[in-house]
Amino acid sequence: MAGGKKKWSDTVGRAGRGLLLGAVNGLFGGGGGMVAVPLLERDLPTREAHATAIAAVLPAAVLSSAVYAFTGRTPLALLVPVALGVSLGGYIGAKLLRILPVRPTNVLFGLLMLIAGLGMVF
User: Fold this and answer.
1) Minimal CA–CA distance to 26: which of 70, 52, 72, 59?
2) Predicted confidence (pLDDT) per residue in 40-94, tens digit
3) Alpha-helix runs per DSSP H in 1-45
4) Residue 30: in which H helix or E strand, if any?
5) How far apart are CA 65 and CA 74, in angstroms?
């Protein structure tokens, strides 16, 4: 019986982290992946955390995009070419994640977060 309770609390905790991730993604426009990876690494190895972050952020991004599009906040002339580039880049990145060593991937991810954060502050 205790195992059932543990599984329930794990599910509730994961759903809570998902709620946080969705809110961050909707508020900051896709930055949820930077929050998702560290949260998912509590339960998954690094590569799986990165891959799962993309899969988890996708529904939130689609829903947020719909809200922004239907409220007139998404200029289609900008959206279409950027979406095409992001799609191609996502495909390339997913292929690279399979072959790059974990440690350099983590270092690059951390540097990207640092640079992005500094860029936002300054």
Assistant:
1) 59
2) 888 889 889 888 888 887 887 788 788 888 888 888 788 889 889 988 998 998 8
3) 2-28, 32-40
4) none
5) 8
Contact 51, 97 (CB under 8 A): yes
Query: pTM value?
Result: 0.68
pLDDT of res. 50:
86
Q: Tokens 């390339």 map to which residue?
A: 92
Rounded Cα gap, residues 46 and 112, in angstroms: 16
Q: What is the pLDDT of the chain when averaged over all its residues?
A: 83
In angstroms, the CA 100 to CA 92 distance is 12
* 32, 52 contact by CB (below 8 A): no
Question: What residue spans define the domains of the chain?
Answer: 2-121
